[in-house]
Amino acid sequence: MTQHTTALFEPARLPGLDLPNRLVMAPLTRNRAEADGTPTPLMATYYAQRASAGLIIAEAATPNAVGQTYPNITAVHSPAHVAGWRRVTDAVREAGGRMFLQLQHGGRVGHPATSGLTPVAPSPVPLPETIFTPEGHRPAVVPREMTAEDIRTTVADFARAARNAIDAGFGGVEVHSANGHLLHQFLARNTNLRTDGYGGPVAARIRFTAEVTEAVAAEIGAGRVGLRVSPGNTVNGIEEGETEEIYPVLAERLGGLGLAYLHLGYADPDTPVFRKVRAGWPGVIVANPVLEEISTDAVHRASEALLAAGADLIALGRPFLANPDLVTRLRLGAPLNEIRDRYFMYVGGATGYTDYPALDAQPSSESSDSIVALDGGRVA
Question: Is the per-residue pLDDT at 135 higher than 50?
């Protein structure tokens, strides 16, 4: 093993928060919550195992009931949710870690069989694929087009959820405007067919994401708020149109708020949109690379290319879920655990979740056959 001295292991800082390294655990839906969205003790163990990350961004939590995507995902809109998350943040803090919570509304990525409610979206355009529910994969339903009152209520729900997250012990929140969920649906031309002030030209399509982010920042302070986007991402049937215009315009509108960071999913330092956003964003950029493979060398290559292109922090998902001691492994140049894809989602329990070994433990003998993927592609 060859010890690495890359900038990945240098300290970094967000507003009001010192980070011991530049490695961020990216949010990954794992479906280990109770049916009502309350985090479980097993989740506290999972996140505490990974507390050596410079920052953990916990998996997506819904700000209201209609925003639920899949079974057993987390939420943050009730006292039980807050109490459950408090157990998680306490465990991570005791292990020396720092945590933000991602806030996500699924929009059309939802189903009455899961939430008991008809999904809402910018326009009545259904998801062009099946969706997993407690009854298995079901055809997607046509979502209800959001009214002006729905939009105002949802903005308020995000702000209230952010306050709940702070009450639960998180250092901040990440607003999720990526991966084909509600805020991303407003950005995309094929899912946003509105003719009011929230649809049509790019300046109107970014409005909902901007208003949610601004409301959350007003509620808990801009320095406690990150925003995640995924330029050009086609997951969940998204066709953005004008990608190279959308994100610089969004960055310009929100750049003066003093947000904690802008998080770029599927980040490619060689694309014009990455360069434009980096040039126009005055604060911290968190970049989540697409990896050619899940290995120590691949992580270093992708991370160092993004740091050289102006990223400040590197967010990794799959490497962290399979390696609770990822920071140590990357620093030492040690091999990474093989990911057991079949235990990513929908299965519950500790297998493929809290049983990945550290360097000084015996390797797992479980199969790595793939049944389900997270958000498509090989995003890190």
Answer: yes
Q: Are 290 and 231 in contact (CB under 8 A)?
A: no
CA distances from 184 to 189, 213, 233, 262, 335 (A): 10, 13, 10, 15, 36
Q: Which residues pair with 136 in a beta bridge?
A: 133
Element (DSSP H or E) covering residue 19: strand 17-19
Count other Cβ atoms within 10 Å, centred on residue 270.
8
Strands 144-145 and 172-177: unpaired
Look at residue 365 and tell me whether its pLDDT is greater than 70.
Answer: no
Q: Mean pLDDT, to the nearest integer, of 63-73?
A: 98
What token pair was written down for 114?
């899961």
**CA 239, chain centre distance (Å):** 20
State the pLDDT confidence band at 351, using cuts at 50, 70 and 90: very high
Extract the tokens encoding 168. Answer: 């639960």
Relative to beta strand 120-121, strand 99-103 is: unpaired
Cα separations (Å) of 187 from 66, 81, 142, 233, 286? 20, 29, 19, 11, 20
Is residue 4 over pLDDT 70?
no
H-only helix segments in 168-295: 182-187, 202-205, 207-220, 243-254, 272-280
Q: Could you report the per-residue pLDDT of 166-186, keeping only the tens digit for each?
A: 999 999 999 999 999 999 999
**Tokens 């079901």 found at:** 138
> Could you tell me the two tokens for 259?
């947000």
The residues near 333 (Cβ < 8 Å, ≥ 6 apart) are 1, 2, 3, 4, 296
Name residues whose C-beta falls within 8 Å of residue 279's C-beta, 6 or more positions apart in sequence.
Answer: none
Identify the burial level of 325 via C-beta atoms within 10 angstroms of its C-beta, where 0-12 means exposed, 13-18 middle and 19 or more buried: buried
Q: How far apart are CA 287 and CA 271, in angstroms?
A: 13
**Which residue has 């292991």 as its token pair?**
9
- What are the residues facing 281 on neighbouring strands? none
Question: Measuring CA to CA, which residue among 164, 271, 256, 171 is closest to residue 210?
Answer: 256
In 3-state terms, what secondary structure has residue 228?
strand
Q: With contact defined as beta carbons under 8 Å apart, do 31 and 60 qualify?
A: no
